[in-house]
Design goal:
Blueprint (H helix, E strand, L loop, with lengths): L1 H7 L4 H17 L11 H30 L3 E5 L3 E4 L2 H7 L3 H10 L4 H5 L5 E3 L3 H15 L4 E6 L7 E4 L5 E4 L12 E12 L2 E4 L7 E4 L2 E13 L6 E11 L5 H5 L3 H13 L15 H23 L8 H4 E6 L6 H12 L4 H9 L2 E4 L10 E3 H7 L1 H21 L4 H7 L2 E2 L5 E3 H7 L3 E4 L2 H9 L3 H7 L4 E3 L6 H7 L2 H11 L3 H4 L16 H26 L8 E6 L8 H17 L2 H5 L4 E6 L7 H19 L7 E5 L5 H7 L5 E4 L11 H7 L3 E5 L4 H8 L5 E3 L3 H13 L4 H4 L1 H11 L10 H8 L6 H20 L1 H13 L6 H13 L8
Parallel strand pairs: 1-4, 1-12, 4-11, 12-13, 13-17, 17-18, 19-20, 19-22, 20-21, 22-23, 23-24
Antiparallel strand pairs: 2-3, 5-6, 7-10, 8-9, 10-11, 14-16, 15-16
The protein binds ligand 26Q.
Enzyme class: transferase
Family: Belongs to the glycogen phosphorylase family.
Protein name: Alpha-1,4 glucan phosphorylase
């Protein structure tokens, strides 16, 4: 590694830069059919992107050739979400060409950073689950593992968030493909038919086969997105499916004079991949969502099967060459779909087919929240996918027989474990189907994996034994989340460690070498200067995009994530109000002794999530009052930054002094932004939940700020709220005081917020009344700690130093070794 890096420095830099400028100019004149002398930044960005794309395609081709020749076992990552963000900066960094492109672009009279800013985010995901998929792909290429992603090519990604003057969230569409997308390669020849509805007739020959016919047929067409690894030729593939009508449109209707009907059926085909569902951690039974799930799993499995068959191996060898990872339960229909293919099309017996299936699939669970567990009504499944419903009933029949054999007469256990939840209508429990149809099951952080085993899948642990259940703690790619978003810190780390970044970015535990320099005053000084510069970069962004002026000489306190009751943004805003009321009560002299800070929020609420939207409204209106209050605004300011995205996160995260990850204990499966902040030297304020726990284990409890009740307390506390409720004035006077300020209209019409405040006054499912006092105490500890800047910087350096575990390079290797049994296949 290190030697290769030094050798790379000896290349003929000027010649390479010349090649790059030639390629850019060539794309301006040919691909874009424009003149180089009156080109705007958007045109220049497109030409640069096309030039980079040429390099990616060459590497992509060599990678696919290598994988075909070596024919290693491959893994496929099925995810309905890939939250990729921008690609240009990431691509030139991974290719090791950033300096050359910067130089080449400069010679052409442009500024590279301005061009990077022209790119739209590919926002084909909601939050953590989709961004995890993107980080894992980056690491799969970097680790030279033969992994492909499969997803949907939504025409509209996650909605654009607007905030009205009253503080209401408004949603606008995200037509991200309007400026053509240079990062995808349409594959007009990679197409499959996918059927919906119709009839399934079981054959009478006793073979167990069935014939599924009629209904609607839709075409799936592939688009390939190259995924470059970091300083390797390996460039994996993300294959996204687009739905199209089967033959332009329905010619029969057309000829019969039913023009509108013909267009409508062609619209209904295109509708399948038109929009990403904007729900995160909630499930609901919409037919179009079910069609998305089947369309995508059917096309992906057909593609996987075609590639496998090209190898002329017996079908029984399928699991020796293929592993399929299910990203949550969204692709669970792949299980009955592979059964259908094997039985109805490949002539396999039920037992052989089930053996293949259960050695092929792996299931990752991302939540234990009951409202997020997917269930599909039996009548809906029967209507849309009649053959799959038959297969699911058959799987259940066999499974129930096995359970009955192991636990004779335990009818309650049978009811709990059944794939079918009784009720009207009956519902299919997708997590149960994913569990019994997979080789192994994992959660995404230690605590979460334990909760999976002791709560939602407890009976399945008793049935199968513990070895089927594991943990793969999430990670993040340090290329995007340190080198790309915080290049000055990355450079400081390299010079401090005396290790080139090309080495430690692929071997993140090397960061631990920073510990030897924690007491170096020179390092501390530069470390602090970089944090300061990153605050100024954020302030500049806010000035340009929102027209607000932000003080950069204060502590930056950030909470950015999807709005959700369990994530408790409400706790944070009520804490801000508490601080404001306290500041107001101080004399000007006393105020001057307090810690000054700016609090930032960003995040989207699902469009139908009323309480989450009300929380945004409260934040915006509190900000309006606090920021205008001349008594206090020097000491406390508050910002809600609209339209949170991957590229906004890249500006926010490097600027934080402290970030908040304050979910009710036991509710946040992992969290991944906690890792991003800490990697960038931001300290963590959080509950004992998800990956916060493992972060604290690594950096040491003295370097994090923990508060709140623990997971084992939660059940009892909820019970107390139900049956022994204590009036809030008695239980938590500080919180009662804050709620009264809101109700009383301090931030505009108090009545508006009653439904939000009532979730706390009545039931308080997320335990704000239990955790508020300890939260306020923790915030006070943060203030005290921050006043000692010298010690704070040391904590910051120690935090970065101990983040080695949280690279997706480690996570993808865990999957490769403990789950998929695949090995790397380097492209020479
Ligand atoms: C399901 C059915 C119908 C419509 C939508 C959905 C749906 C969509 C998205 C359900 C859940 C999601 C997203 C879940 C998610 O992002 N979970 C997060 O996953 C991260 C990666 O593992 C964890 O770090 C977070 O803790 C977890 O909340």
């Amino acid at each position: 590694g290190e030697e290769a890096v030094w050798k790379a420095g000896l290349r003929d830099v000027d010649a390479e830069e010349k090649t790059i400028t030639n390629s850019i100019v060539n794309h301006v004149q040919t691909s874009l059919a424009r003149q180089a002398y009156n080109l705007d930044n958007l045109g220049a960005y497109q030409a640069v992107a096309l030039s980079v794309r040429d390099d990616l395609i060459i590497n992509w081709n060599e990678t696919q050739l290598t994988y075909s020749r070596k024919a290693p076992k491959r893994a496929y990552y099925l995810s309905l979400e890939f939250l990729m963000g921008r690609s240009l900066d990431n691509s030139i960094l991974n290719l090791g060409l950033k300096d050359k492109y910067a130089g080449g672009v400069d010679k052409l009279g442009f500024n590279l950073e301005d061009l990077l800013d022209q790119e739209r985010d590919a926002a084909l995901g909601n939050g953590g689950l989709g961004r995890l998929a993107a980080c894992l792909l980056d690491s799969s290429s970097t680790q030279e593992l033969p992994v492909w992603g499969y997803g949907l090519r939504y025409k509209y990604g996650i909605f654009k968030q607007l905030i009205s003057p009253e503080g209401q969230q408004l949603e606008a569409p995200d037509p991200w493909l309007d400026h053509q997308n240079p990062w995808e390669l349409p594959r007009l020849d990679v197409i499959y038919d996918v059927r919906f509805y119709g009839e399934a007739k079981r054959s009478s020959d006793g073979s167990g086969r069935a014939e599924w016919s009629g209904g609607q047929e839709v075409v799936a067409q592939a688009y390939d997105v190259p995924i470059p690894g970091y300083h390797t030729k390996n460039t994996n593939n993300l294959r996204l499916w687009e739905s199209k009508p089967k033959s332009g449109f329905d010619l029969n209707s057309f000829n019969a004079g039913n023009y509108e009907g013909a267009i409508e059926s062609s619209n209904s085909a295109a509708a399948i991949t038109s929009v990403l569902y904007p729900n995160d951690n909630t499930s609901f039974g919409k037919e179009l969502r079910l069609k998305q799930q089947y369309f995508w799993t059917a096309a992906s499995l057909a593609d996987i099967m075609r590639r496998f068959k090209n190898q002329d191996k017996p079908i029984s060898a399928f699991p020796e060459f293929i592993a399929v990872q299910l990203n949550d339960t969204h692709p669970t229909l792949a299980i009955p779909e592979l059964m259908r293919i094997l039985i109805d099309e490949e002539d396999q017996t039920w037992d052989k087919a089930w053996d293949i299936v259960t050695n092929t699939f792996f299931y990752t669970n991302h939540t234990v929240l009951p409202e997020a567990l997917e269930k599909w009504p039996v009548p809906l499944l029967q209507h849309v996918l009649p053959r799959h419903m038959q297969i699911i009933f058959d799987i259940n029949l066999f499974f129930m027989g096995q359970v009955e054999k192991k636990f004779p007469g335990d009818r309650e256990r049978l009811a709990r474990m059944s794939l079918i939840e009784e009720g009207s209508p009956q519902q299919v429990r997708m997590a149960h189907l994913a569990c019994i149809g997979s080789r192994r099951v994992n959660g995404v952080a230690e605590l979460h994996s334990d909760l999976v085993k002791t709560t939602i899948l407890k009976d399945f642990v008793e049935f199968y034994g513990i070895s089927r259940f594991g943990n793969v703690t999430n990670g993040i790619t340090p290329r995007r989340w340190l080198d790309q978003c915080n290049p000055t810190l990355s450079a400081l780390i390299s010079s401090t460690l005396k290790i080139p970044k090309e080495v430690w970015l692929k071997d993140l535990p090397k960061l631990e070498g920073l510990l030897a320099h924690v007491d170096d005053p020179e390092l501390a000084k530069t470390w602090a200067e970089i944090k300061q510069a990153n605050k100024e970069r954020l302030a500049h962004w806010v000035q340009v995009n929102l027209g607000l002026k932000i003080n950069t000489n204060v502590m930056y306190d950030i909470q950015i994530k999807r709005l959700h009751e369990y994530k408790r943004q409400t706790l944070n805003i009520l804490g801000v109000i508490h601080r404001y009321l306290q500041l107001k009560a101080l004399t000007p002299e006393e105020r001057k002794k307090t810690n000054r800070k700016a609090v930032f929020f960003a995040g989207k609420a699902a469009p139908g999530y009323y309480i989450a939207k009300l929380t945004i409204r409260l934040i915006v209106n509190v900000a309006r009052i606090i920021n205008a209050d001349k008594d206090t605004n020097e000491f406390l300011s508050l910002y809600f930054l609209p339209d949170y995205s991957v590229s906004l996160a890249e500006v926010l995260i490097p600027s934080s002094d402290i970030s908040q990850h304050i979910s009710t204990a036991g509710t946040e499966a992992s969290g991944t932004s906690n890792m991003k902040f800490c990697l960038n030297g931001g300290l963590l304020l959080g509950t004992v939940d998800g990956a916060n726990i493992e972060i604290a284990e690594e950096v040491g409890e003295s370097n994090v700020f923990f508060f709140g009740h623990l997971t084992p307390d939660v059940e009892d506390l909820r019970y107390q709220h139900q049956y022994h409720a204590i009036p809030i004035e008695e239980k938590c006077p500080a919180l009662a005081n804050v709620l009264n300020a809101v109700s009383g209209g301090l931030f505009g019409d108090g009545g508006v917020y009653e439904p939000l405040l009532n979730t706390i006054r009545q039931g308080d499912h997320y335990l704000l009344t239990d955790d508020f006092d300890s939260y306020i105490q923790a915030l006070a500890m943060v203030d005290v700690a921050y006043l000692d800047q010298k010690e704070w910087i040391k904590k910051s350096i120690r935090t970065t130093a101990k983040m080695g575990k949280f690279s997706t390079d480690r996570a993808i290797q865990d999957y490769a070794q403990e789950y998929w049994n695949i090995e790397s296949a380097k492209v020479e």
